[in-house]
Amino acid sequence: MAIEIPSPPKVGMVSLGCPKALVDSERILTRLRADGYAMSPDYAGADVVLVNTCGFLDSAKEESLAAIGEAIAENGRVIVTGCMGNEADAIRARFPDVLAVTGAHQYEAVVEAVHDAAPPELSPYVDLIPQAYDEAGVKLTPRHYSYLKISEGCNHACSFCIIPSLRGKLASRRIDAVLREAEKLVQAGTRELLVISQDTSAYGVDVRHEERMWKDHPVRTHMTDLARELGGLRDGSGQAPWVRLHYVYPYPHVDAVIPLMAEGLITPYLDIPFQHASPAVLKRMKRPANEARVLERLRAWRDICPDIAIRSSFVVGFPGETEADFEYLLDWLDEAQLDRVGAFRFEPVAGAAANDLPDAVPESLKEERYARIMEKTAAISAAKLQARIGRVLPVILDEVGEPDEDGDIGATGRSQADAPEIDGAVYLRNVPADSAPGDILNVRIEDADEHDLFGAPS
Ligand code: SF4
């Protein structure tokens, strides 16, 4: 039976007040966009309306109350946040129907309230954030990393995917707006920006890579310009964020971002969803940038930037996949030596063209191939991680533990080769007592297993 894909809930936003409130609004919208919400430009189309209020002056309070009143009258499903949220009783007394009231800078609470009011329908087939939810339906991104969504929709027609019919053609966000959002995130404590979209390398194709002014110079709506500018951002203490590119198809112009990685301007990491390697399967999948010379290009990229980590995902058991196709994929993986690999068994999604293809692969065979690809990629990963033992690598901390009986503090972090949630971890011992999530430490790698590294600050 085909899997049904839900359409995304829509959020309207009314943002009042000072530049700090605007940062909050952008931060909230960044997260909601990444969670799969669509934005509604008007009240009528919104499943829920957020009013980000200002409570600094009486006149601002009046303006905020008027905005809440208008949103209640026009839509009815309203969540209040921002400075006036600190006066929840006054708001509730006047507008008993508001769904939730949260205070200034309470990103997590307001995002949770939106999840409650208009739950995102979870689907691994359309979600861009991996495992973004726990069993309760909400798992919020810590503040030290942020997903930055640069476009909606997609111009391709992969036969297993219904995103283009669900989300429409590629619609790139203005590059100056994306950069402003990223700059504010970095100033507010984001140490790692994860660039996401359905097709990051196609960014700006729909607007012919139009130029916008950013600071004092023009930038093109293009992945390379975006990467360079993101790499140039600095926080209040002059620190650059890690910049990680996801969902990049290997179009020829992707070659231009590799030198930026070699220079240390962006994180040496590329997430390329190859999905398969066999030309026959890729043809039936109708994949973009399906070209024979990918292995040569991977080699060339590694020559320029030896530390580049390449992650990818693959589907096994696509209709018509023969044993020869699957073995071609395993051999290709031996050659490609990808650093991180996710594998999925093909499942039909309601409305996808692939469902009509002949020669469905039996479930038992899908399972067998899944086990074989996992074994292959685990062995490649283990060998690659062994080679890191003895090196000193920058590691971003995600969680810091409590001191044990000897006073040692452990922490969990990630190297530049590891994106949150989908890749491996670096387990640390003996981190400094004042360590906090988001800190970046130089770590000597002491040990490795199939997916993770172990070490201590050097
Ligand atoms: S590139 Fe293919 S798989 Fe990705 S969103 Fe577009 S149609 Fe779907």
From TrEMBL:
<dbReference type="Pfam" id="PF00919">
    <property type="entry name" value="UPF0004"/>
</dbReference>
<comment type="function">
    <text>Catalyzes the methylthiolation of an aspartic acid residue of ribosomal protein uS12.</text>
</comment>
<keyword id="KW-0411">Iron-sulfur</keyword>
<dbReference type="InterPro" id="IPR058240">
    <property type="entry name" value="rSAM_sf"/>
</dbReference>
<dbReference type="InterPro" id="IPR038135">
    <property type="entry name" value="Methylthiotransferase_N_sf"/>
</dbReference>
<dbReference type="InterPro" id="IPR013848">
    <property type="entry name" value="Methylthiotransferase_N"/>
</dbReference>
<keyword id="KW-0963">Cytoplasm</keyword>
<dbReference type="GO" id="GO:0051539">
    <property type="term" value="F:4 iron, 4 sulfur cluster binding"/>
</dbReference>
<keyword id="KW-0687">Ribonucleoprotein</keyword>
<feature type="binding site">
    <location>
        <position position="83"/>
    </location>
    <ligand>
        <name>[4Fe-4S] cluster 1</name>
    </ligand>
</feature>
<feature type="binding site">
    <location>
        <position position="158"/>
    </location>
    <ligand>
        <name>[4Fe-4S] cluster 2</name>
    </ligand>
</feature>
<dbReference type="GO" id="GO:0005829">
    <property type="term" value="C:cytosol"/>
</dbReference>
<protein>
    <recommendedName>
        <fullName>Ribosomal protein uS12 methylthiotransferase RimO</fullName>
        <ecNumber>2.8.4.4</ecNumber>
    </recommendedName>
</protein>
<feature type="binding site">
    <location>
        <position position="161"/>
    </location>
    <ligand>
        <name>[4Fe-4S] cluster 2</name>
    </ligand>
</feature>
<comment type="similarity">
    <text>Belongs to the methylthiotransferase family. RimO subfamily.</text>
</comment>
<feature type="domain" description="Radical SAM core">
    <location>
        <begin position="140"/>
        <end position="383"/>
    </location>
</feature>
<dbReference type="GO" id="GO:0103039">
    <property type="term" value="F:protein methylthiotransferase activity"/>
</dbReference>
<keyword id="KW-0689">Ribosomal protein</keyword>
<dbReference type="Pfam" id="PF04055">
    <property type="entry name" value="Radical_SAM"/>
</dbReference>
<feature type="binding site">
    <location>
        <position position="54"/>
    </location>
    <ligand>
        <name>[4Fe-4S] cluster 1</name>
    </ligand>
</feature>
<dbReference type="GO" id="GO:0005840">
    <property type="term" value="C:ribosome"/>
</dbReference>
<dbReference type="InterPro" id="IPR023404">
    <property type="entry name" value="rSAM_horseshoe"/>
</dbReference>
<keyword id="KW-0808">Transferase</keyword>
<dbReference type="InterPro" id="IPR007197">
    <property type="entry name" value="rSAM"/>
</dbReference>
<keyword id="KW-0408">Iron</keyword>
<dbReference type="InterPro" id="IPR020612">
    <property type="entry name" value="Methylthiotransferase_CS"/>
</dbReference>
<dbReference type="InterPro" id="IPR006638">
    <property type="entry name" value="Elp3/MiaA/NifB-like_rSAM"/>
</dbReference>
<dbReference type="GO" id="GO:0006400">
    <property type="term" value="P:tRNA modification"/>
</dbReference>
<feature type="domain" description="TRAM">
    <location>
        <begin position="386"/>
        <end position="458"/>
    </location>
</feature>
<keyword id="KW-0004">4Fe-4S</keyword>
<keyword id="KW-0479">Metal-binding</keyword>
<dbReference type="Pfam" id="PF18693">
    <property type="entry name" value="TRAM_2"/>
</dbReference>
<dbReference type="InterPro" id="IPR005839">
    <property type="entry name" value="Methylthiotransferase"/>
</dbReference>
<dbReference type="InterPro" id="IPR002792">
    <property type="entry name" value="TRAM_dom"/>
</dbReference>
<dbReference type="GO" id="GO:0046872">
    <property type="term" value="F:metal ion binding"/>
</dbReference>
<feature type="binding site">
    <location>
        <position position="154"/>
    </location>
    <ligand>
        <name>[4Fe-4S] cluster 2</name>
    </ligand>
</feature>
<dbReference type="InterPro" id="IPR012340">
    <property type="entry name" value="NA-bd_OB-fold"/>
</dbReference>
<feature type="domain" description="MTTase N-terminal">
    <location>
        <begin position="9"/>
        <end position="119"/>
    </location>
</feature>
<feature type="binding site">
    <location>
        <position position="18"/>
    </location>
    <ligand>
        <name>[4Fe-4S] cluster 1</name>
    </ligand>
</feature>
<dbReference type="GO" id="GO:0035599">
    <property type="term" value="F:aspartic acid methylthiotransferase activity"/>
</dbReference>
<keyword id="KW-0949">S-adenosyl-L-methionine</keyword>
<dbReference type="InterPro" id="IPR005840">
    <property type="entry name" value="Ribosomal_uS12_MeSTrfase_RimO"/>
</dbReference>
